[in-house]
Amino acid sequence: MTNHQTAPTQYVEANGIRFAYRRFGKAGDAPLIFNMHFMGTMDHWDPAVTDGFAKEREVILFDNAGVSRSSGDVPDSFAGMGANAIAFVKALRLKQVDVLGFSIGGLVAQEITLQAPHLVRRLVLVGTGPRSGDSMDTGTPEGNQIFGATYEHPDDLWLRVHFTPSEVSQAAGRKFLKRFRLRTKDRDPEVNEKAALAQRTAIAKWGAKREHAWDYLKDIKQPTLVVNGSNDVIIYTINSYILEQNLPNAQLIIYPDSAHGSLYQYPELFVRHVSVFLSAADPWTA
Amino acid sequence: MTNHQTAPTQYVEANGIRFAYRRFGKAGDAPLIFNMHFMGTMDHWDPAVTDGFAKEREVILFDNAGVSRSSGDVPDSFAGMGANAIAFVKALRLKQVDVLGFSIGGLVAQEITLQAPHLVRRLVLVGTGPRSGDSMDTGTPEGNQIFGATYEHPDDLWLRVHFTPSEVSQAAGRKFLKRFRLRTKDRDPEVNEKAALAQRTAIAKWGAKREHAWDYLKDIKQPTLVVNGSNDVIIYTINSYILEQNLPNAQLIIYPDSAHGSLYQYPELFVRHVSVFLSAADPWTA
Question: Which of B248, B252, B271 sits opposite A254 (nearest CB)?
Fold first, then answer.
């Protein structure tokens, strides 16, 4: 059985796009599809998370259209990215999947669920928010400062994005960065400027203020687990609370002294909580 | 081994009070001390919760001073109730305990932790809030209506307090009420009017608006798990979010379509989540 480090990058065609993906773990009913954050590739996932899940279920990482090794362009809307993700899942001939989305991957995950409800069994939304969420149109001041700064080493960006300034959180961040370098061969090239710009355009549209902005969440009837860190300054933590309060069937978990990358700070606990949610016949019965 | 139904009511003296209590479950390092809600006795706990915990740890239920079979008066402050609870725990010669508080029991639990930090290993706060929490001075309009109404059967009060109006939640409520009647012998007498009045006085003081009201939470350094239902109208759900955001070392879990009594609606999931939190050497590592 392959794992995060050894799973070969494979390709599948759909919608005129050649999607790069990796698939590993214990085969079962509904694989767990991972949707990545802004400027992220398959190699930005934490092996402690992906391999943690892979012991009990099949895990599928992919680059959405226009990201890293996948062909095509990044659409300038999350509706477009969701449609591409659905095409990818259908190209793998999967009838039903569990969907995990992190940060803007959580926006794609919401769009997948809205556009193809029968394809999605359960939903996990991490470090993300609703349409017209708090400071999601312009980005937060902290986030704009963090993404606008220059760094001696690129890793320093991710330490600030995903972890709080506390010693404990930063130490967890350094451990994460080691894990995330464990795969040495067949790594994804970084996302290019054009792709990042399209993602930014889509974020501004998603975040734009609207009347009755959160009503659409009533249409996401899947059992949903919303997760965030206590101090997410990229997509404010209150947006996770708003998601939980407006989704008809959602549970919220917030972790202490943690930021946007709470799943990378507490990988074992995150995998355990999500596994309790995904594994039970009734998601609200342990 | 005894359980929720069969554990005999015992007594211990401290502070001039004769405390009624029940103790059962698997003996270990830190027993879990249960602090009850407004007008509640030992018999208001859900056996699915208490016996769920008892499989892995020792559980101690008690009536605080002036409540049901315990002698003395209910103090008119939570500081006073906390001091009495500490006297009770010390009278049992326990060096360290885990403390669970539900509703106003969560206010007592906070006071125990503030007054005797070395006595408390970990803290579980369910359906509760901080000093000067949202609508905690006057009570919520919904809560005042629910507690002020008259009911054909007393159980109808608890169905409205602890569960949402949804069919699913009400059905869970009726199951809870059956479980809560399973103990037929040696049940606690109901709380009297004088005790309820003192509890109300204490609630008004706790809830009163203050400057820097939430600063005191920084002194609760114990790992804390905050839990609530998505739609608590007795102590608004946002108060659980405020607790998590202001406690230095806290995790939040909010359950879907549930109210004040989320632990009675999802007893298995609640026991599982709290057990993950209490059992790990590091509470944030599964």
Answer: B252
